[in-house]
Amino acid sequence: MILLLLILIPLAGALLSWIAASRNVLWSRCIALASLLVNLVIVGQIWATHAATGGQWIYQYKADWVPHFGISLNLAMDGLSLLMLVLTFFLGALSVLISWKEINQRVGFFHFNLLFVLTGITGVFLTMDLFLFYFFWEMMLIPMYFLIGIWGHERREYAANKFFIFTQAGGLLMLLAILALYFIHGANTGVYTYDYFSLLHTPMQQDTARWLMLGFLIAFLVKLPAVPFHTWLPDAHTEAPTAGSVILAGLLLKTGAYGILRLVLPLFPEAAAHYAPWIMFLGVLGIIYGGMLAYAQNDLKRLIAYTSVSHMGFVLVGAFSFNTLAYEGVVMQMIAHGISTGALFIIAGALYERIHTRNIQDMGGLWSKVPVMGSATMIFVMASLGLPGLGNFVAEFLILLGSWQADRWITVFATIGLVVATAYSLRIMQKVFFGPSHQQYALPDLNKRELVIIVALVAAILLLGLHPQPVLNTSQKTDYVVR
Amino acid sequence: MSFADFISLGPLITLFTAVVISMLLIAFKRNHRITYVFSLLAYLMALTAIIPAMLYIPHTVPPLLVVDEFSLFNTGLVLTSGLIILLLSYNYFEEREERKEEYYLLLPLATTGALVLVVSRHFMSLFLGLEILSISLYGLIAYLRARERSDEAGIKYLILAALSSAFLLFGMALVYAFTGHMDFPGIGAALRQAGYIPVTVLAGFGMMLIGIGFKLGVVPFHMWAPDIYEGAPLPVSAFIATISKGGMLVVLIRFYVDIHGNDYSMIWWMLAIVAVASMFVGNWLALTQQNIKRILAYSSIAHMGYILVAFLSGVQTGLEAISFYLVAYFITSIGAFGVLIVMSSSIQDAETLDDYRSMFWRYPWVATVFTAMLLSLAGIPLTAGFIGKFYIVMAGVNGHMWFLLFMLVINSVIGLYYYIRIIAMMFKSLATGEVTYIKPSLPVAGNITLMLLTLLLVGLGIYPTAMMQLIQQMMKMIV
Q: A328-354 burial, b if ≥16 CB within 10 A, otherwise e?
């Protein structure tokens, strides 16, 4: 029941904040923030009490929806879902906060869309019914499309359309694979159901399994994104409003990674192992290619967007290494990347609000004017390049440790990615905060609201880096596919 | 005619009688409101006449008609759609035309034609229904005589429909020449006995396909659709998009099932080519259109292609999927045209994309409805269209139609582009400077109708179980 509540609270918040906006904009913001904070408290509470004890599944909830097709409202939470939800509501609440001043037009509808995306994401992380998974998977698209298309920057419509069409194409292939799995399972066992637990270990032919796995995988590779399906990402991230970029980078990409861990690997272990070298190769390609492209960008948001491609390459390498170390790293990377990249987008947004440009050639020498913002950026840039003591280091280190056991050459090339990361990360600092200042901007430093956001993010990334054990313990509760 | 016949055909007879009475009514006194209210009552009575008809199912009126669950369900669907279109019509014609009363003769008459199609199981009744439908449509399409495009559309439809009817008749004659039967089960039995399809019958089927394909508006018989959607009065376009196509599709299903169409690969291939071509041509040509009526016309061509995929899957689920999809498609299409009707002013129809610029900020409520309808056409969750598309894909997977499914997936993605293009237009921010927006009439009745349609759309999207059970039960009976 509590799981259903986690989905319904943001949904109710979405409707209420839309209605409230016609009377008072402030209420709308407060309702949105409150509903996310309530959820954050709930999942925090669950984490505090249940994380260390019990079996894999902390909560389960099941009710019939369309019994005729074997579709049920089947929700369950394990360690992986729990961690993802904590991240979701944490970043969600911050997204409302950063939009406090940035979004002044059509505030009610903005918060409606924001909370609706989060509802969809929550659903994806909780559902154990494949039909419902597809349902939520598609449900997050429309509000995200509006977020980019209405409140975005100059080329927002192009970016929104591209995002929508790419993800929808991937999603439809997944739908075909889901349905094929449904019928194969039905034909073999006589039970027609979309229930995840029943569909695990469906007996099927090797070739069929491989095709079906590819159907799922493409949907997730588009969302992750992996080269060559990544081209929607730089556009969408660059054109979206700050809150949109944070949710895209911090949460939407993670649904792709989550899908791989939750569906692709457990449902088709043999097929996944068969294609693993190729997929890891795609991962490495993403790490290096994404990093190189990031280095070449002048648009700050676009630069950060390409770093996501690079970081998500690690997730792909780790997920297909098939050992516990790598999985721990992947989960850690999902969280750490969500926080560090989210933070960088927030800073880029704050800068844009002040100087109305995202071009780093026009910036320079800002440190003396905004030292607090500068040092915050320094922390997240260091996190992004993998400095020990910060979350991303733990993640990438674990992934490389794990993948070394699976494939040495892949690991060697993935490590080169760290060097590239250093190059582009330092370039951000160099171009924006150091060096000669080209223009004399008069700009205020972070205000109190922004400071609260940044401090929360810094605390999170430090905690992940210095004391990662609680996260690792929780993620260990999930039953990964190991060989 | 026995009592049971009379009750079983109640809806048909009620509506037809109402047309005659309403003609006398107009001769007696011309009054738009009276005629309108009378027609509304006629539709409502026809709908209630379904209830006693249910007592006698399945009931055959040999050799022409059959009343079973399938035909009653579709009768209900056609009548409800007709009623909704009628509700949307009043204001539209009140503002435009001097002699508006005859519209209320032609619309129920066309609906009667569709009802005959729905219950027919014989070439005679098929042709009869088709002609009642077509001939009323000539008048309906050209109803706004003052408009040039309306006349053009009417004449275009007249010529093409007459031509396609001729093909249909010739095709029927060829089939009759070989099998010696004109009722569907008889043809099926004769073919099964022969064990193969001779060339004459195949040619006959091909020619019938031209006639049927024209009505359905599938490629390559689709050329008329955009022009006629554009030229006809908006409620009539909604009628053509839904009832006229739906009625034809129902006969096609019955015919295909009765002659065991799945057993003959030639027929399958003919329809498969038509399906793929419809999806591609429809979606492709819609991409660059600037006129929303034309976009809807092309999109309906593509949707007929999707429906044919389910049709070709050759499984029980496929027929269920078609019925569900038809319901969803009817709601969505009428809803979309309803938005166009509500947004049109007495001077011009709101039909270009520019008329909808930043509509969300000017008329948020209507824009929300339109968005919901377009998302349903695109097959996005929380709408009936999503469940419908899901059902179709499910049928396809069940029948192992992988090639057709990939075509469907590619086309869904292409289709997405022009639906979201309209949505994006509605969400554009207000243009500054001298822009004259269209002044919509926004009638109350129209708004209420749209609200109901939206509720239905979302309701079916969230809780489709009841409708599915109904459809499943009814399909068990006919196969």
A: bbbbbbbbbbbbbbbbbbbbbbbbbeb
